[in-house]
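## retry 2 of 3
previous attempt timed out at serialization; input unchanged, resubmitting
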Amino acid sequence: SDLSYLGLADHKIPLYEADRARAEHQGHQIGAAVAERPPLAAETVAAIMRRVRERQRAVGYEGKYREWIRRVTPPDLQ
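## retry succeeded, writing output
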């Protein structure tokens, strides 16, 4: 990672490295657990995708995230 904005570009941060290693290990564990699960049935996936599209329509999301965020963010948070 680029830490030059903190003036730490040439320094190793042990805590950062330990966190990165822990996160990588946890990611591998999650991936292994997911790989052991049976895949969802096509009908289940289709039902989930229908629900996602319904929710997107309900909130006015048309597939362009940055535009949608710009439109729904209150003026005092911009």
